[in-house]
Amino acid sequence: MGWGENPLPWSATPNKIPAPMTEPNDPSDAPPAWSLAQSAELYQISRWGAPYFRINAAGRVEVGTEGGPVVDLFELTRDLEARGLDLPLLIRFSDVLKHRIKHINECFRRAIEEYEYDGRYQGVFPVKVNQQRHFIDEVVEHGRPWEFGLEAGSKPELLIALSAMGTDGGLIVCNGYKDRAYVETALLAQLFGKKVFVVLERLEELDHAFAAAEKTGVRPALGVRAKLSSRGVGRWNTSTGDRAKFGLSVAEIVEVVDRLKERDMLDCLQLLHFHIGSQISSIIPVKNALREAAHIYGELAQMGAKMGYLDVGGGLAVDYDGSKTDFHASMNYDEQEYAYDVVSEVKEACDRKGVPVPTLVSESGRAVSAHQSVLVFEVVGTNGVRSGGAAPDHPGEGAHRVLDELYETWENVRAKNLQESLHDAQQGKEEADSLFKFGYITLRQRAQAERLYWHCLDRITALASRVKTVPEEVQSLEEMMSAIYYCNFSVFQSAPDVWAIGQLFPVMPIHRLDEEPTERATIADLTCDSDGKIDRFIDFEDVKRALEVHEIRAGERYFMAMFLNGAYQEILGDLHNLFGDTHAVHVSLEEDGYEVASVVYGDSVREVLGYVEYEPQEMVERLRLQAESARRRGLITIENVRLLMRHYEESLRGYTYLTGDSDGPADHPSVPPPPPLQNPKPAR
Ligand SMILES: *Cc1c(COP(=O)(O)O)cnc(C)c1O
Predict the structure, then answer these.
(1) What is the reported pLDDT for 681?
(2) Second label for 519, Cα 20 to 30 Å away, from 128, 371, 475, 508?
């Protein structure tokens, strides 16, 4: 099915839950009717996902771009698994990346046209946001029509930018702390036709620039990064202002101008840069910063600097929760409004000062790269406290009073006494706990009390969902009563910002979306760290403490995915518990299906052990000697020695995540040659 024929266009996000699709007089044992639109509304997919992700007629998540081909994410995952790529799997969609780059460029083009701006836009992608080679190669390829360039924040990133960019017209902007070698490299690269800007972050870097210019004979293309007095908002609001880590104060910028003038090098100063932080959720600080920077730009031009470029940095946000608000996981503007504001503020300031308008540069990282990657993982176990509505066993004749009371509390839960019932249940449980401590009831009786308590809470939360005004205490039971879904991935490796800064990413099942999700769950990862969890989820109004998920059916697999995680997560990911990089594949969509353009195998156990200086061969040998000595002493049979050694060696070659293969993981593809793909195609 093409993109246009889907039964659920984005614009049709219903405000009301529509009528069930099945007839009301269906056989009574059929599952309750649930529509695709209800799932779309519940997971807000059309708000954060448009125009790339939506639910298809089969009740699964579908990926594509407007008017282009689509792929069923569940089927794609199964296909990739069939090729030996175990979950968790990071899938990068080239078409989505291409669309993001095009979208941002077209927003600027439209703004330039509408405001009759007499200049152009030339964006750069900040390499620090996702340095993976295949990804950067795609940024360069898809950005070529717009002469989209790269921004480097360190020497290694400059090396990436220089090799990746070729000489296709895109700019290279060098930020970050620089030493002599960094500056000299940047200058020399200008000699083969690249436009490389060295942006001064500190005054000392000007001396490096002078020295490098003298040594190489190249006139540097310089920029200055301004510490604006206008602040960003949210987490990164200290990226600018007087105490900012980077940038030159106004006094220092004036000093740069004077020193360049002394050496007759004022023509070298061509660019003004600022960056007020990332994920700027409100447009107001963006406008304030733009206005201030545009005025500085105009003054620099009036002071005789050559200028020509204004680089507005990053900060363009991503609407992770789809709420279109200034909440930290959202944004109260869109890419087009951003472009209009950049263009109009700069034009106004330049017109007023009578200086020609600059080429506009922006360094949007998050907004370019977040959407293209999806992490698919699997639920490997659950742990719930819900009774599923079943009645508890009666405590029986002559049971302890505390048990009788808890049973009675359960029997008497009604919609109008929810809070009172909750207090009674809590009191009963506390009493049982202290009776046990002083030896008045047995462990078995305490267990009975605990079960009755959960039955009470279960009944209270079930009734709470049917009443209009729920007491606050009862509302907070939701989280406590939610199940834990254990999933095959590591938060620290694949979504470190969830742990580090409480970042929200959309998470949802990728199939069974035509069924009602009857469970509430939080997500736990494979690490033995209690922080390795997701227990805050996007919500239209606030943040949900539990996610609606489906009941796991015996013998069936359940796949979930985390979306919009293509910015920062991969490189910030770490090896906690030695869970390594996941497999990553690049998928491009075709009219008749899809193509796996490249596969980057994740770490094997052997590789992550190598990072912490273990030598696998030596480990095998040490274990073999211990086994051999145990065998000599008759403690272990030869067969068991062989089994142990086989598991040990196979595990070393295997994926660091659970592979669910009890006979030991298959040879890990990253060590021996990768398995053949069905439609092999050279990496781009
Ligand atoms: C991190 C960074 C960016 C990217 O910011 P986003 O919010 O991801 O767009 C751009 N420029 C500089 C100087 C940065 O440090």
Answers:
(1) 38
(2) 371
Q: How far is the CA of 137 from the centre of ligand 1 (A)?
A: 19
Residue 437 has pLDDT above 90, yes or no: yes
Last residue of a domain, one of 445, 477, 509: 477
Distance CA 225, CA 205 (A): 12
* Torsion angle in degrees (nearest 10) through CA of 321, 327, 330, 331: 150
Number of domains in the chain: 2
Residue 366 Cα, ligand 1 centroid: separation in angstroms? Answer: 8
Tell whether 328 and 195 lie within a shared domain: yes
CA atoms of 457 and 446, how far apart (whole Å): 17
Q: Are residues 341 and 209 in the same domain?
A: yes
User: What is the CB-side half-sphere exposure of residue 320 using CA atoms within 13 A?
Assistant: 30
β-pairing verdict for 149-152 and 124-126: parallel
pTM reported for the whole predicted model:
0.88
Ligand 1 midpoint to CA 234 (Å): 14
How many residues are given for the chain? 684
| Pocket lining: 363 vs ligand 1, CB cutoff 6 Å | yes
Residue 307 is encoded by which pair of tokens? 């200028």
Phi and psi, residue 144, nearest 5°:
-55, -45
Please give the DSSP secondary-structure letter assigned to residue 220: P
Indicate whether residue 153 lines ligand 1 (CB < 6 A).
yes
Instruction: Please state, rounded to an integer, the average pLDDT across all residues of the chain.
Output: 89
Asked if 179 and 208 count as a contact pair (C-beta separation under 8 A), the reply is yes
Instruction: Indicate which atom in ligand 1 lies nearest the CA of residue 568.
Output: 8
311: β partners = 273, 361
* Alpha carbon of 566 to ligand 1 centroid (Å): 14
The verdict on 406 and 325 lying in the same domain is no
- Number of alpha helices (DSSP H) and beta strands (DSSP E) in the chain: 23, 23
Could you say which DSSP state residue 552 is in?
Answer: P
Q: Is the CB of 315 under 6 A from ligand 1?
A: yes
When pLDDT is cut at 50, 70 and 90, the band that residue 4 belongs to is very low
Closest-lying ligand 1 atom to the alpha carbon of residue 273: 13
Protein residue closest via CA to atom 3 of ligand 1: 314
The alpha carbon of 312 and the centre of ligand 1 are apart by a number of angstroms equal to: 10
pLDDT at position 684 is 35
Provide CB contacts within 8 A for 683, sequence distance 6+.
Answer: 134, 137, 586, 597, 598
- Pick from 382, 415, 405: nearest CA to 484: 382
Q: Is the CB of 174 under 6 A from ligand 1?
A: no
- How remote is the CA of residue 337 from the centroid of ligand 1, in Å? 19
The confidence score (pLDDT) of residue 24 equals: 40
Q: How far is the CA of 483 from the centre of ligand 1 (A)?
A: 38
Is the Cβ atom of 149 under 6 angstroms away from ligand 1?
no
Say if CB 488 and CB 377 are below 8 A apart. yes
pLDDT at 535: 93
* Arithmetic mean of pLDDT, 526-538: 94
* E strand residue ranges, 232-347: 269-273, 309-311
Closest among 543, 603, 542 to 577, alpha carbons compared: 603
C-alpha distance from residue 556 to each of 551, 561, 659 (Å): 10, 17, 16
The reply to whether ligand 1 has any atom less than 6 angstroms from the CB of 134 is no
Range of the domain at 435: 401-477
Are residues 278 and 405 located together in one domain of the fold? no
